[in-house]
Specification:
Layout: E1 12-16, H1 21-32, E2 36-40, H2 48-54
Parallel strand pairs: 1-2
Length: about 55
C-alpha cells in the first residue's frame, strides 16, 4: 500500500544528513508539502545554502 504525502501542516520532521544527497532532497520535499523541518548535519558550513532555499 502506497500513501501519498499531501498535507504536512503542523508536522515537525527531523532530517539527518540534510546538507546533501537524499537528506537534502527529503528536506526540500517535506518542507514544500508544508512540514516544519529540523535539519541535522555534521558540517554546519554546508547547511547554509539548503537552509536558505528551504526557508
Amino acid at each position: 500500500m502506497q500513501k501519498s504525502i499531501t498535507n504536512l501542516n503542523e508536522k515537525v520532521i527531523v532530517i539527518t544528513g540534510a546538507s546533501s544527497g537524499i537528506g537534502e532532497e527529503a528536506a526540500r520535499l517535506l518542507a514544500g508539502k508544508g512540514g516544519k523541518v529540523v535539519l541535522g548535519v555534521r558540517r554546519v558550513d554546508r547547511l547554509e545554502t539548503p537552509a536558505e532555499d528551504i526557508r
